[in-house]
Amino acid sequence: MRLGTLLRKDVPRCAELEQELFAGEDPWTVPMFVSEIEAGNYYIGAFESGDELVGYAGLAVVGAPPNAEAEVHTIAVDPRRQGEGIGKALLRELLAKADAVNAVTFLEVRTDNESAKGLYTAHDFEVVGLRKRYYQPSGADAHTMRRPSLTEREGRTS
Fold it and tell me: N or C: which end of the chain has fewer CB within 10 A?
């Protein structure tokens, strides 16, 4: 598997995976992905055997050091490939981008998604809030999670 920049040609596969993974919610569409890429946000794909997209992730960064903030917009892995470390690799790549600008990083995750919350907790995220009925149309709640900036994390170990 290799990680690389998500291109417009990859977007239809992203939308297919969205439909499969988030059918009970409001899955992202091709225009939504295109809009994110064209806005200059950081989107990457996980590719197997050439160009087969098996996962994707996106991050937006606003501001500049020392006040930069990042938000993980999405991480998704083909259900047939989950549990292989692809999501972890995608997350680590996003976090490296956030660390490069010393950004505090935020994300939302379903309160009942224990595997994702475990992954995020293992990467220094902590729950800082609750968003009631965040996901639609299901009305599922989300936790807001925060990962301190690189400077903040290094200060903890000093």
Answer: C
Range 12-36 burial, b when 16+ CB lie within 10 A, else e: ebbbebbeebeeebebbeeebbeeb
Cross-sheet strand order for the sheet of 69-77: 2-5, 42-48, 52-62, 69-77, 104-110, 142-147, 126-131
**111 alpha-carbon distance from chain centroid:** 16
Task: Tell me the torsion sign for CA atoms 36, 37, 42, 43.
Answer: positive
Where does 2-157 sit in CATH, by number? 3.40.630.30
The residue count for the chain: 158
Mean pLDDT of the region 29-46: 95
pTM for the predicted model, two decimal places: 0.92
